Amino acid sequence: MLTTLIKLGSQLSHNRGEWDDIIDYPNILKEKDKNIKLYVAELVFDLDKCDVYLSPSLKEYDEEKSCLVFKNIKIQGGNNKAIYACVESGKLEQIRKTFFGAIDSKGNIPSTGQFQEAISKDFPQFNDTRLGKLLPKIFSLSNIFIEKFTIEKEAKGQVERLIDEKLLTSLVLQSPFSRIILFYTSVLSSEDGINMATPVSKIEGFEEFMKAKFLEKGKKQTSIEVSKKLCYATGTLNSDVAEVNFSDRYSLNKMFVKETKNYASFFDKNSFILNYQVSNNNQLLLSRASKYLLENQKIRIAGIDHCIIPQFLNKEEVDIQYITKGIFQKSELLFDSNSFDSLVTGAEYETDAPFWITFLAFESDGNFFKTINEIKDVSKFHFYKIIESFNEVNDFFKNDLQDSVDWLSVMTDYGKQHRFNLASIYSIIPIRKDKEKKNEVLSLFKLIFENRKIDSNKLFKHFCDLILCHRYERYKSFKNVKEYDDQYFDFAVRDSVFKYFALIQALKQLNLLQNMEENEIVTPETSEDKPNEYQQKITTFFTQMGYNVDQMAMFYLGRMLKNVVKIQDDKVKTVFSKVNFNGMSVRDIMRLRVALIEKTEQYKKPEHMNKIQRVKFDDVNFVTFFKEKDWEKRMSRERAIFFILSGYSFGIVKSSENK
After folding, report:
1. Spatial CA neighbour of 289 closest among 259, 328, 252
2. What's the burial of 325, exposed, middle or buried (CB within 10 Å: 0-12/13-18/19+)?
3. Mean pLDDT to the nearest integer, 251-261
4. For the residues of 232-294, what is the DSSP string, one character each?
5. Which residue among 10, 49, 183, 508 has its CA within the 20 to 30 Å range from the CA of 581?
């Protein structure tokens, strides 16, 4: 991984300015889509008038220049002092900390701003610059700033004064279709020779301080010849090798730390400084690559943030930045829950070069970076094979099974149609809210991508958990499961059954399924039979889905169940109460069959006769295929539920003429 990061960092470094690593650029995609006009506002510290005010003159935001001109430095996490002359909208609190300090945990009022603290503590050489002399004078405006720009709000029983940015911007914005995206600070002080409001970023001492803090670490040279040391990241000897010190806490490189459960966990903690040393230039390249990947190669998998990290053969000279765009877009086909029409295939970024992918799951609030799971070394061949298999299964269910299931309806969530992919699976394997750390979906995806066998028994257990969630509306406990109203339980069953069918078929194609009957999908030739012939369509369905006789028996029991439930449509309690959704033993199956036959005897009304005849017809088929001897050796209780409900949810789709 380090090799890839360094190569990527090197490619990103071409034509790169010295400030690019520390300047932050706001995400303005939403504003662009809505054609919102963006502006930069000036917050003036007027030492001549002892006042602080927002200038009524706004500047248009320039995507390329504004952040660099006014030095919109990335917010530093942890215990770093605030040192910001410019901030993004929503972060004005950082301006207050920078120039006026912050009340500490004991309620003590600050005696200086945090920028002045940072200079005095770590960079005293800048105390005598113009910036160093102005900061105490700006601090004297603290009460005026608090009075004009903050309001009292109660939080957790305490009254705090918070910046009211909406009120502040309403004073200068004229149109509802405009927005301030950046605030920069400026100073006016005739006593100090500053006769016009001048950005703090242009004050003598500011750029020098920023360069000393961020850009010149490890660059001090002495006249004494420095011996070369081994750089851990590249295995080469360099003269500027030192213990790693990445300032950015939101970084892939923060996995290499002294604590356990990370990439450096087998290092001798007492010798860490000697063992894990990287040249200053390579640290810079690693930081640049990490930033790029986290901003451009991050995707949600099973509800968890993952970073996509490719790896290439050392001898291959490839444009990593270019190819990773294609890998990301291919990943979207598998993991993105957006409608398929909105996704792209990444064909323009195709490469003949072999590669492997690591999907790195992580947690971070911006102040720490913790890896929680890895899907490692997924080959290009297997990655593409997974995409192809899911696409083929989706097309098979959409086209070949159109007489058995309305696949487009199954794959429609909240009014949007989706294509079957791994995002679909995330919503059909319940993840208990109080046990989110044990993510069964992520474990399944890991097996799929690492080309390891999957126990089908576990899949059917997940299916039963899903049906129990729908039946008893346990949605608060399983937040990842799509919620259905009680009256749409039949749709919940249908959608669950056929999505599991699709998953099973995809795993069969990938040859990853264990403990599953050896039945292959058989796509029948086009038939001239009439589309409303009930039994012919069931027989075709059995052939297409590779049913064995035991599964056929459960299917017909499910058809009996469906028709009896329809007969009992006006009843509060139906024969559904006879179904054990945890799993059906052979005795449970026999009891259910008897109960269904008994119900047909109780409802002999003319309007029910057609359904009663259907129940009797399906019962004949059930008896034909059901063999009680050694039943539970051939079919588990959870599988029985699945195939019963496959019959229950099977629907004959009417012809287009009949609508």
Report:
1. 252
2. middle
3. 65
4. TTTS-EETTEEE-----SSSGGGGSSSSSSSTTTTS-GGGHHHHSEEEHHHHHHHHHHHHHHH
5. 508
pLDDT at site 495: 95
Give the ranges where 300-439 is alpha helix by DSSP (H): 320-335, 380-395, 407-410, 422-426
Contact call for residues 160 and 152 (beta carbons, < 8 A): yes
Look at residue 612 in the predicted model and tell me its pLDDT: 85
- Full-prediction pTM beyond 0.85? no
Handedness of CA 465, 468, 473, 474 (dihedral sign): negative
CA distance 323 to 350: 7
- Residue type at 68 in one-letter notation: L
The whole-angstrom separation of Cα 421 and Cα 429 is: 14
User: Can you give the pLDDT at residue 257?
Assistant: 56
Q: What is the pLDDT of residues 348-376, one digit of tens each?
A: 567 788 899 999 999 887 777 888 889 99
Triad 637, 640, 644: Cα angle to 5°: 150
| CB distance 218 to 242 below 8 Å | yes
User: Residue 341: pLDDT band by 50, 70, 90 thresholds?
Assistant: low
Sign, CA torsion 12/17/18/24: negative
SS3 102: coil
